[in-house]
């Protein structure tokens, strides 16, 4: 333990020398290797705790990628560091240090020498995730031992999926004017998506003036959505600046832009955002295999042989508004029971109907009885999700049955969608010429899939759709690629070529050309779960009337206006 500590001290002292430009700014970059243990004890935050029996992992990768497969719960990271005595005055003059790192999943809390200096989210029993990136916690100088060992301990709780630290680096830095820098973007294109201009341009300005009149660098870096470099700029600015920025996008697509200020080695928090260029010209070639259509026709025929045995049960306590609400059960492909909630206007007559599909792993939602009072609404739960989540037998749905396309989860789930339409069309109160589909994320993919597989859908409104263009998808964001990587670690016979071939049968971009009804699509431009590229991979293959709406400031969601746009779109077919 003592030898390792000595090595860490030497490394950190070197980083202190080379990490600082000018004594007014102290910066220390910690090693990516941390002592690590699952479990939970506040004693693990203290200086005197002996962590020599702990393993060592990287802070750059989730713990599932480092031997802790499927572990959910508490874990701790620990690291010793030394700040040489000569920096004590610099740090004291700065007032405080920041500890910074990019991301933790799901909740994290930082301790310095046994004292908590900040957290993001809430640990159980009041578990709460605060979505966001950069962690930035203040450390008072009096907590630090200059010229002696200090300990940073990070407590992390993961509620499911990938967990732990996921950050390029963890740094300590004295507070500088750059820490107060907040930037804003002005763009003449209201949705930040440029078409046929040959140029992406915007301007950068401060939200509030800095507490310095000294010149500093404004750094701008541009990459593709897959992180390939496109361009970079450094501008000399000072005071309350406003700076125009422009670059030539090399091809249709979406671009990542990172802006930050830099002065005497100190950097501001980066401002990161996406902009788009000619998204309807994005090239994502269809890769359907020759038996693609016959596979789906045979699957539909197999579904038709299953007796649905529809069953409705009135939920009196939920039926106090303009509609009666029913719990619905039915049987789908493989004689699997699926469920949903169905809302019927109390007003007699034939009504248009909307079938809504849920996001990945969502609980079963109720229709709002006061929404669209003249429409029937059916919220479907596919097998193992929604209402049936507590009894899920499919594990991580996206990799269930990867060994064989006939057993893959989404073969059954896509047939559940068609069975849901069967239910609506069996109802005497439904006008079967006016059946609509909608949903977001996985529900957006389901919306496009049901339109491709069932011609009874009159029009559809998917938003932020999932499950498309997997080869490109897995280059852009880490999830759900990580789920497949984890699966493949325990299935050595599996290869990426086999995975991509199987997924091609279920890829929305391969199904989209079969869609014949009008659609509208909502897109969150800053989405890091279902990025815009994959939304357009399917959308661009649709040959029926279509229109998209991009929300420039939204991540994995859409703006409030989407719901009135969607409702007006459906009403337009009911005149």
Structure description:
The protein is an alpha+beta fold. It is 20% helix and 33% strand. The chain has a nine-stranded mixed β-sheet, with helices on both faces. Helix 10 (532-539) links the parallel strand 29 and strand 30. Helix 4 crosses helix 5. The radius of gyration is 27 Å and the shape is globular. It starts with a helix and ends with a helix. 41% of the residues are buried. Mean pLDDT is 91; it is low at 1-23.
Strand-helix topology:
Blueprint: H1 2-18, E1 27-29, E2 33-38, E3 55-58, E4 73-82, H2 88-94, E5 97-101, E6 104-105, E7 107-112, E8 115-120, E9 135-139, E10 149-158, E11 164-165, E12 171-174, E13 183-186, E14 193-194, E15 200-206, E16 216-224, E17 229-237, E18 242-247, E19 253-263, E20 266-267, E21 271-277, H3 292-304, E22 311-314, E23 323-332, E24 336-345, E25 351-357, E26 376-381, H4 409-426, E27 430-440, H5 442-453, E28 457-463, H6 470-476, H7 481-489, H8 496-504, H9 508-511, E29 519-524, H10 532-539, E30 546-551, H11 561-571
Parallel strand pairs: 14-21, 25-26, 25-27, 27-28, 28-29, 29-30
Antiparallel strand pairs: 1-12, 2-3, 2-4, 4-10, 5-9, 5-12, 6-11, 7-8, 7-10, 13-15, 15-18, 16-17, 16-19, 19-20, 19-21, 22-23, 23-24, 24-26
Helix pairs in contact: 4-5
